[in-house]
Amino acid sequence: MLRKKPQWVVGVLVGCSWCIRVGFASCAEDYATFRIPCLQGTPNTFRPGAHSGDRKTMLGLLDEASQTIECCVGVLQGRVFEVGLKVGPYLHRLLHTYPTLAERLATILENNPAAIQYGMFCSPPSCEEETIGPLALQEVLLKRLARFSDEEAALAIPRGPRAGRRGWSNRSGQPKMEQPQELPEMETEVLVKETEVLEMETEVLVKELVSWDEIGVDFVIAGLGRCGTTSLHQSLVSHPNIAFTSPSEDYKIFAEGQSNRFLPTKQTARALQIRSSQRGQPGLLGLRNPAISLYPLSYYTIFLQERMKMILVLCDPLSRIEKQFMWFHYCHPDVEAAEARKDAIPRVLKSRNDCDPSIHALLSSRHSAWLRSQMIHLHLLELIKLFRHERLFVLHRASLNDRKTYSTLAEWLQAPAFPQTWNQMRRVNFRLGHRTDLCHNQTLQVLLKRRLAPEYAAIQFALRWQSRTFQQLAADRELMLHISRCDKEEELVEGPCGLYDLEEQGCPTW
Ligand SMILES: *[C@@H]1O[C@H](CO)[C@@H](O)[C@H](O)[C@H]1NC(C)=O
Ligand SMILES: *[C@@H]1O[C@H](CO)[C@@H](O)[C@H](O)[C@H]1NC(C)=O
Question: Which residues form a coiled coil (predicted)?
C-alpha cells in the first residue's frame, strides 16, 4: 500500500483543521454555547434543496425561514447563514483519508456527487461567512453519527472558504494564535497525491441571509413577458416619485436570482441599499422581472411581504406565443441577420440544432412541454386566489395607451397623481410586421387559439376580477373576439422606425 509521506499529508489536513480551530476560535467558542430555546431545531436544519412544492409546502417553508430570522436576528441579535456542503468533494477527500468514516457519512448524505446539501444556521454575532460553515456542518454531522471520537470530529470538518481571504477575525484585537498541537500519530493509508491535497477545493458554501424587510421594494411588475412590461416600466419611471431597482429587467432578487432561497442574501440586500442611496430619491421603488409570474417560489415570497404589491400586464396569448416562438424555435433564413435584429436569441440557437419553418410545429407533441412552460393560466389563477385587489393589479396591454390607467395605478400604488401635463405613455420593445408564418394562415390561427383556450379563459377571468375596481373595455372586446396581432393591419406593416423601435428619435409614442 502507498505509504508515501503519510505524516506530511496528514499534517496538511490536520494542519488545516488546526488553522480552522485557531482562526475560528472566537466563533467556535461562542457557537458552542449559543443555545436558546426558541432556536430548537433551527441550527440542525439540514434539508436538501427541496424548494418546489405545492402552495402549502412553499408558504410553510418560507414562513419557517422568516421565523428563524426573526428569532435569531430579531430576538438574539445573532446572524443567519445558509451553509451548503458539497457532498462529492467532501466525501471524496474523506474516502482517501478515513474510509470508514466516509462510509458512515455517506449513509446520511445524499449520495450524489454533484449535490450540495443546504441548511440554515443561526450563529452568534462573532461568526462570519468564512468561519461558520465548517463549524455548523461539523455539528450537524456529529449529531447524526453516534459516538464520534475527537479525531473523527477533526477529520470530519469540511473545508471552508479559502482561509485568510479577509484575515481571521480576532475580535478583541487580541491575537488568538496558538501553536499547533502535536499531530496525532495516525496510521492512515493516504492514497492521495500531495498536490491534490494542497489544491483541495472549498467544500462549504456560505452566504449570510437577511430578512425580506431589508429588500425595500414596494411593487413588482411581475409579468407577463412580451405583453408590454417594458413599456409600463418606462411610463411609470417617468413619475417623479417612482424609481426602479434597475433600468432593465432585474433578475438579482427574484426568479433565477433568488436561487431557490427562502431568504435574500445580505450581499443582495446591501447592493440594493447602496443603489437606492446613490439614487437619493425618496418615493416608491419598483422592480421589473417578468419571470416572477411563472416562478411560484418568487410569487409566494412576494405574497408574504405584505408591503409589496404586484402588477401584471396581460395580452393576447397568440401574439405573445408567436414572439416567443420566433425567438426560440423559428427557422430564420439568415440567422445572423435575425440575431442582429434581435429576432433570434443567439444563446438559444447555439444550444440546439433544429428549428421549425412554421409555427404549426407548436401543435405537435414535440413542443408541448415548451408550450406548457410558457403558459400562464395556472399561475394567474393562483395569484388571483392569493392576492387581494389592494395588492394585485391586472392590466391588459390594450389599456397601456390610456392615461386613465396611469392615474389609477398611481392612486393604487399610493403615489401622488401624475402631473397634469404628463404624457409619456411610450410603446417600446416591439417588433412590427410578420414575425412567423402565423398571420398568413387563418386556419393555423384558429388551431393555435384552440390550443391556447386555457390562456384565453384565465386572462378573461382575471380581467373580470380586476373590473370590480378598474374596467378595461378595449381589452374586454379584444379578448372576447380573440383579436390577435394578425387582425390588426397596423401591426403587420412598417412603422416610422421600420419594423423596430430601436431608434430613440421619432419612434411612435401612441
Ligand atoms: C488582529 O490582530 C492583529 C495583531 O495583533 C491586529 O493588528 C489586528 O488589528 C487584529 N484585528 C482585529 C479585527 O481585531
Ligand atoms: C395553413 O395551416 C394549416 C394547418 O397548419 C395547414 O394545413 C395549411 O396547409 C396551411 N395553409 C397554407 C396556405 O400554408
Answer: none
